[in-house]
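Hey,
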Amino acid sequence: MHRFFLQPHKISAKRVTFPPDTTHQILHVLRLAEGDLVEVLINDGYALLTKLHTDPDRNRVTGEVLESNLIQSEPRVLLHLYFGLSNREKVEWILQKGTEVGVSVFSPFVSSRTIVRDKKLPEKKRQRWERIICEAAEQSNRGKLPILNDPVELAVGFSESQADATQSLIAWVLADPQTAKLSDVVQPQKEGALAVFVGPEGGFSEDEIEQAKSLGIKLISLGSRVLRMETAAIVFPALVLFVLDEM
């Protein structure tokens, strides 16, 4: 069944008004017709089973809400992914696949070894990245849209994680696979937030690792093989959610 995230104001008295971009997708891309069923989501964790009413001549689609169902696929633990800011292709891959895996918050950061050092996020780029997140959330049966934060300095990310998360973990290529196993370090939790840090292409510097350790952020090994940063940014959250029985 096709799923669409809409703004709450598009629903009134069980009547859905689809915006022009979604209308185009319904009529001309998906070729849905009068009476077809879709799910409408307004970012509250519920899916609204909706019957379509189409008017192709006027390029208009509305819907009738038939029932509301709680989506069971959202992790109970809010997983906050901090990752080194990189080129467009890698960032978009991380946002798409991270959403599918179950990341709840994305925070790009700038550090001593990130390829991209400019923390400005132009509105056009933000809109594109949020659209990628939305499409991935619709495809993967998410009940809520992950949040995309503006890029920050790594030190700011460290401080934020200490204030907001119950646990903070950092993946480091030089961490001992025997003593820094994720299953031994991560603490079981059924709610709250957990922050994970994945370094840029050049990895974290020794000083950055020492700063993380001084704040109580736990070092994690992702195994004996060296992963690309965009691979680690997906594998790390997936492993955390698996250990927490949230996959």
